[in-house]
Write a structure and sequence with these properties.
Layout: H1 2-7, H2 17-21, E1 23-26, H3 30-41, E2 46-50, H4 54-64, E3 68-70, E4 82-85, H5 89-102, E5 111-114, H6 125-129, E6 133-139, E7 155-160, H7 162-174, E8 178-181, H8 187-214, H9 219-240, H10 242-245, H11 249-252, H12 255-264, H13 270-287, H14 291-305
Parallel strand pairs: 1-2, 1-4, 2-3, 4-5, 5-6, 7-8
Antiparallel strand pairs: 6-7
């Protein structure tokens, strides 16, 4: 009866029946621990914290500051009306099957959310068929594992069944986050965009640092030189817009410099030149006023900078 009363309550940003009856967390890596700690700080009751061993579960409970450490999925996780699956994407299906096997009679009327950015709630279909309300909740935030990041103002992408979406909204609002309601089919594209803005930006900056190191700079010096440049461009984008913030030889249409860059990048591993070309083409597509003519010019440069193939079977 308590669950039925709680299920019918609208979400608010203040403690309510959702937070009082609480949440069980399956998977306590960086994301699971950080969300658990932040929810505990906002008044949520933390029930089971499930990992692969008692040792890691106990450490996770200490990190979160609450919860009961469990080394396996059992009926105990269903003592909370909300279950958060915070495991790697590749492990979600196995967790879903274990929940279905263990809680075939208990899963009904529960709200089950996973935290994958790329997968939709469809992966929870076996639990949905047993009567659970299924959804996904993905914080647009990186988690270093050191401390719990401040999630105030951070975007959380959510989708799924109506009940699960209501619970997800309550969770996000209790963290003072911002809700982005997605269509399930949009999850992969949403996550691809997030990956470009985070991990791939990091790879590009690290590549620039290593190029600086190859010409004699110490890593710390290269980092100190490049990060302010990157920050300034991003600040300009936020303040002025992307096209006004665009800088460099391509923005000026200086194709002779682009050609010199490509020639210089023949020396490092081939991925450097491939990435440079790909990023220039992407910039032309998303920033140039005349993308097609700029792309044609870039293609011509690339064709001219390709070294002639070595003749086979000819000895010096």
């Amino acid at each position: 009866m308590r669950c039925m009363r709680w299920c019918s309550m609208p979400p608010t940003r203040y403690p309510n029946m959702v937070t009082r009856y609480g949440i069980s967390i399956i998977g306590a890596g960086r994301l699971g621990r950080s969300l658990g700690r932040s929810l505990r700080d906002r008044g949520w009751s933390i029930h089971s914290v499930v990992t692969r061993s008692h040792g890691t579960a106990r450490r996770a409970v200490r990190s979160i500051g609450a919860g009961h450490a469990c080394a396996a999925i059992s009926n105990e996780v269903f003592l909370a009306p909300v279950i958060l699956i915070a495991v790697p994407d590749s492990a979600i299906q196995a967790v879903v099957q274990q929940l279905a096997d263990v809680g075939e009679q208990d899963v009904r009327k529960h709200f089950i959310l996973h935290t994958s950015g790329a997968l939709a709630s469809d992966v929870l279909a076996p639990l949905r068929q047993l009567g659970a309300s299924a959804g996904s909740l993905h914080p647009l935030q990186s988690f270093s594992g050191v401390g719990a990041p401040n999630l105030e103002g951070r975007v959380f992408a959510i989708e799924g069944d109506a009940g699960a979406v209501r619970v997800a909204r309550t969770l996000v609002r209790s963290l003072d986050g911002e809700v982005l309601l997605l269509d399930s089919a949009a999850k992969p594209l949403y996550h691809a965009a997030a990956s470009i803005a985070a991990g791939q930006v990091l790879a590009a900056i690290e590549a620039a640092i290593q190029l600086f190191a190859s010409i004699g700079m110490k890593r710390r010096e290269a980092l100190r030189a490049l990060l302010p440049l990157t920050r300034q461009v991003l600040e300009n984008q936020e303040r002025l817009g992307a096209r006004a913030a665009w800088t460099g030889p391509l923005a000026r249409g200086d194709f002779r410099v682009i050609a010199a860059h490509e020639k210089a990048l023949l020396a490092p591993p081939e991925e450097y030149l491939a990435a440079y070309r790909a990023l220039n083409r992407l910039a032309a597509r998303v920033l140039a006023r005349d993308p097609e003519s700029m792309l044609a010019a870039l293609e011509q440069i690339s064709q001219e900078s390709v070294p002639a193939p070595k003749a086979k079977g000819v000895s010096a």
